[in-house]
Amino acid sequence: MPRFGVFLELPTPEPVEMAGWAGWDYCVIDCEHAPIDNAMLGHMLRGARIPAYVRVPNGEPETVQGALDNGAAGVIVPRVESVEQTRRIAQSARFFPRGRRGVNHMVRAARFSLTPVAEYLASVDRDVRVIVQIETASALHDVEAIAAVEGVDELFIGPYDLSQAMGIPGQVMDAKLLAAGERVLAAAHTNRREVSVFVNSIEAASAWIALGADALHYSADTFLLAQAMRSAREQLGRL
Ligand code: 3PY
Ligand code: MG
Question: Which ligand is nearest to the CA of 171?
Answer without folding.
Answer: 1
